[in-house]
Amino acid sequence: DSGVTQTPKHLITATGQRVTLRCSPRSGDLSVYWYQQSLDQGLQFLIQYYNGEERAKGNILERFSAQQFPDLHSELNLSSLELGDSALYFCASSVGGRLYNEQFFGPGTRLTVL
Amino acid sequence: AQKVTQAQTEISVVEKEDVTLDCVYETRDTTYYLFWYKQPPSGELVFLIRRNSFDEQNEISGRYSWNFQKSTSSFNFTITASQVVDSAVYFCARTNNNDMRFGAGTRLTVKP
After folding, report:
1. Residue of A51, A47, A42 lying closest to A62 (CA atoms)
2. Does the distance separating the beta carbons of B44 and A56 come in below 8 Å?
3. Cβ-count burial of B54 within 10 angstroms (0-12 exposed, 13-18 middle, 19+ buried)?
4. d(CA A34, CA A49)
5. Could you tell me the pLDDT band of residue B65, with boundaries at 50, 70 and 90?
6. For range A27-48, the mean pLDDT
7. Are A108 and B52 a contacting pair at CB < 8 A?
8. Contact of A89 with A35, CB cutoff 8 Å
């Protein structure tokens, strides 16, 4: 158990809908990272927040947005969902604010878009 | 895009065999970091190792060893005396601290 929690574990929704994925980092970690793992695109870095501020941005679509709250939990919002958004979404956390910091991954949220 | 290539899609070995997973990366950066992650059947990603571009020393951790060669842009991972519990998908990744790129992964199956 990495100490990173993600909810929900599974999510099934329809095209065009909007969903919110939630991540709670390990106690003491200030950075949160979001990743997408799909059969088509593989594992992709989406975005990083450090202590509430966006720190690095990867292949995140404009339909997706994220934020980190004062209690350091983070939410990833996915809107206008398409079939291709079906994937496993991982959250990770680290103490430091650099992408090269050792990251601890949560169990993931499996999103299915029908 | 500065790619990370893991040419081996799947590898199957018998327990106690040694196995090497290959990783080749592209970069225009002077400073960068390389990683290996393990994704067992349970699905979570587990950090194995990080190397920075200035440290080409090979590293050994138990049955695991890593060979970093800047001259060939490779960061290969060897498991000695493989065990069934090593069965997983292994990902190589690179970051320049602005972005993180992963290889497609190598699925390792260790048969008893």
Report:
1. A47
2. no
3. exposed
4. 9
5. very high
6. 96
7. no
8. yes
